[in-house]
Model the fold of this input.
Amino acid sequence: MSDSLSVRLGERIRETRLALMMLTRLPAGSFPLPPPPMTAARWAFPLTGLPVGLIGWAVLAGSSALGLAPLAAGVLALIAMALATGGLHHDGLADFIDGLGGRDRARRLEIMRDSRVGSYGALALILAVGLGAAALGALAEAPCSAAALLLAGVGSRFAMLLVLDGLPPARADGLGRMATPGRPDRSAWLPGLAVLLLLCLITGVSGVLAVAAMLGTAALVARKARAALGGQSGDVLGATQLCAETAGWLVLSAAL
Done:
């Protein structure tokens, strides 16, 4: 292996580790040297859905094998994935929905900074968890269930990357600002897109429909964020991921 190839491979590994650190609570080591810039790790954001989806599938399949009811298996799979991500995306959804109740842009952003969860955010979480658990329970015995959960995990984070690149930052700080490149770089989409295409080959038409649903859901969240906030933030990205993933699960549960 040439020195230049070895250096590039080392950089990609460091960027993948940074993406895991930012979007999950999975062990990814530490950086004795300064970490790579967040913008350089954007390409790996969709790939963090692979280990999270695999964890969810393992718990779902194991619970089903033990004879648990589908809904119980779905709830346990959700718990496992929430532990893997630290509930990061759930927090984003709650904050974003609460923020929409503000009277103007400044007030909405202020509400989203508040760590407390309001009634709108709590209701959004209840609905998201309920729909997600029911859909996952239906997927427990479905063919290609492992590929289905991986598809939803990668596809929802790919949709999140599209929103990150498609909207300007709503704040002067935070994840939405740190991960936004100075100029568009669509090459960061290629790894996630390649994995999505591979998973669609396994899941067939059902997977294509699920990807369409995830992208459509992300577009709706992005449209609301632009109108209410003027752009994206870490909370918007978290809401995008969770809403898109839930939409993917729902379509896959009906189509597989």
